Amino acid sequence: MQIMPEIPMQISELISVCCLKDIEAWQITSSFMVRNIAAKEYRVIVPDEEIEEFVKKSPPQFKVIGESRYTKQFKDQLLELLPQDKKSQFGWYLQQFIKLLAVKDNQDNEIILIWDADTAPINKLEFIDHKGKLIYYKGTENHTPYFETIQRLTGLKKIVPFSFIAQCFPVNVSWLNELCKEIEDKFQMPWVEAVLNQIHFSVPNSFSEYETLGTFISHRHADQVTYSDRPWWRLGNSLLNHVAFLNPNKAAELSKQYDFISFEKWERAKPYFIKVSIPYFFKIYLPSLFNKMPNKHV
Description:
Blueprint: E1 11-17, H1 23-36, E2 39-46, H2 51-57, E3 62-66, H3 68-71, H4 75-81, H5 90-104, E4 111-115, E5 119-121, E6 134-137, H6 144-154, E7 168-172, H7 173-187, H8 191-198, H9 209-220, E8 225-228, H10 236-240, H11 248-254, E9 260-262, H12 273-285, H13 287-292
Parallel strand pairs: 1-2, 1-4, 2-3, 6-8
Antiparallel strand pairs: 4-7, 5-9
């Protein structure tokens, strides 16, 4: 009789990937992460030259790791494969592979939570239910090139009526290792190289780590996962005008509607120089003064 490995009932590690241009949002979202998501460890992966700044501006619970630990094995190949008119997507692809390699940098039976750095959890969140099943939030994207790449890699089709792109993704390390082994057995080469070779880089945004893992898990481990219909909100900048306005009081108010809110770079509210930039300056650089100001914007 096969003995199944014991499933941990707590997230072993929360992993985020970030960079300096997003550090203002990170200072706010990361504080909500450690407050509302229980994990044994927290790790943020950043460009090597930005480690010192992230150590200063991250919660003490976070380990700050340089990205070269993961990127040295594929960075040059990725850059070479990208057509000249798609070089701007280099960082977008890079961070996805960093996340996958960081997950693999753990023990086989551990559960890792990939959490988008621009997203603030405003409710206490659980990602493992009482039966040990992993809990996945639902998204609404349906980008065809993602699934074309997945089918070339694995032969698997999308079988769930929603997207796994929902700002966060819990995964048992053994599941990712299983997927990588299948890819290596199929293509007879290291999995990173195989994935890069199957992405059609001439087509914008042709790979998703969340959809790839989600599709694999929905086929191979459907009995070990469950899905949440709890609401979350992607357009945080339109909702609040800027992440700077997400203070604990505002988060408590919004938590009645949403579990987490994302503040993505591509989505910006209407002109906010007067409404955001000035109070944000006071909040970040003159916190004592900001705390004395009347709270007119939240």
